[in-house]
Amino acid sequence: MARKVMALGHRGEASEPDFLRGVLGELVLTFLFVFIGVGAAITAAGCSAPPIANPLLLPYEFIPVAAYHDAGKTTTGGGGGGDAELTAVALGQALVVAVIATAGFHISGGHVNPAVTLSLAVGDHITLFRSSMYVLAQLLGSSAACALLRWLTGGLAPPVHMLAHGVGPVQGVVAEIIFTFSLLFVIYAAVIDPRKLAPGIGPLLSGLLVGANTIAGGTLTGASMNPARTFGPALAAGVWTHHWVYWVGPLTGGPLAVLVYECLFMADNTRHQLLPQNE
Fold first, then answer.
1. CB 183 within 8 A of CB 213
2. What is the pTM of this model?
3. DSSP-derived secondary structure for 30-82
4. What are the pLDDT digits (tens) for 14-62?
5. Which of 103, 131, 162, 262 is the most exposed place for a label (fewest CB within 10 A)?
6. Structural contact between residues 135 and 118, judged by C-beta atoms closer than 8 angstroms
């Protein structure tokens, strides 16, 4: 299938009512997504007694991640375990992505993720000008959500995505590329492709994949797949260790998935036939 050229957009686009609604929508939707998602992570970490350090989150006091792995177990002391905490976080991420993406689909597309926005720009589904405004809105919404959470919790630093002990930056980038590739591949197959089997459930499927990736990436990078989701907590906590990994990985994996799908799997509005059509 022939590749489309990315649209730059124009200055007059900013005066269109739909443009402003879309940008404000991304601001509000990303605020809600991060507030609920990070809030769920704080709650999950707080339910472990004493707080633990795991490869997905840095709890309130920034216990070194190495201590978690060197202990050879998922928790220190009695009480809740790391597996239960990770499952709770993954469930929270899956639910909030599914609901927020569905609620915001008719407003802005419900991106709440710079990797999704850039990827759709690569696929010529949004102009570069609008996508840049979306990304700014997403970062602002995430930052505001984490700042509010820190104030509401009496100054507790929000959990920050970190590489697990023994996982280097290059390995982290590769992991984030794969996780984000899978996310955009599902979005393209379930939302963008006109041959999709069940219109309307794309956001739900995307949310389920985010939850699955969160579990799969719990011992690697935490499977951010979303630079805005990582940026807000890092800004509020002042922790920037390997932060670039969570930009390079998603912003590479997402567009790569779009290119692969557009070039190899996108076709006319005809579904795959299991039997040969010509004898």
1. yes
2. 0.83
3. HHHHHHHHHHHHHHHHHTSSS----SS---TT---HHHHHHTTSS-SSSS--H
4. 778 788 999 999 999 999 999 999 999 998 877 654 433 444 444 333 3
5. 103
6. yes
